[in-house]
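Fold this: LysR family transcriptional regulator
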Amino acid sequence: MELRQLRYFVAIADHGSLSRAALMLHIAQPALTQQLRQLEQELGVQLLHRTAQGVLSTDAGKVFYEHAQAILKQVADARSAVAQSAERPSGSVTLGLPQSISGALALPLLKASRAQYPEITLQLTEELTGNLSDQLKSGRVNLAVLFDDGQLSQFATSPLAEEELHFICHADAAQATAAPAEITLEQALQAALILPGLQHGVRPRIESVARTAGLNVGSVIEINSIAILKSALLADMGATILPSAPVLDELRRGALRARRIHSPAISRTVVLCSSRNIPPTNAAAAIGRLVRQVSEQLCAAGLWPGATPL
């Protein structure tokens, strides 16, 4: 198996066509087809379905595509690491951000990266936390912001902030107009809740704190998208337990209301993670330092609501 075969396969899968991939790669289509056939023979599986409209990945092809992408990225990172200067880091760095964090961190990080490291290409990817963890393991992202749930020992970690979770609902909901401005966890759990699935985001933390307090999380509407979850809140379909950052605009204009939770309060530890097995490039190390710096600045300026720097 050769690197060029991996590169060819990824290009074909990305373009959905042998002819378009051949044009992009500047290779004759018969030669490209031959390389693909040799790769499939070596693996002993069919990677692509040929159709009149183009090509589609088989189940085996979808699995191989993820590995091929990760391998090609690690090779590119290795080349970059050899060529980089510690004083002027350059190259490409991919940073994964959870959906509930990107609203607070993404734009400030991009601005700071362009100002301090103009020779680094910072690529941000927004994903569910469970997906980000898998991508960090495989090397598809260099760094990822995750939440410390006690399952991060496989990564090198650096704490960023402790983020408070609030009870958030439609501004006209009964829970929003009730006094006082705080609510107990038991009361919050009695509401019709809209939460991410068990493997993502705040849900494991909520379940853990509730269990420790002798409380149960009842039936919930599970939505693994911040955008759709916000739409459900605005439609007054229920309430949620989230940090304030992803719904800050809606809170400011009065469409949603947030109440602090007590007895007990709920917070989560936000950490920057990198692989223990893949050495960081100078560029990745520089972006890691920048993430910590920007996080601290946002907390100090009150621009990351409910977050305290660690």
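The two ends are 46 Å apart (CA to CA). The longest helix spans residues 59-83.
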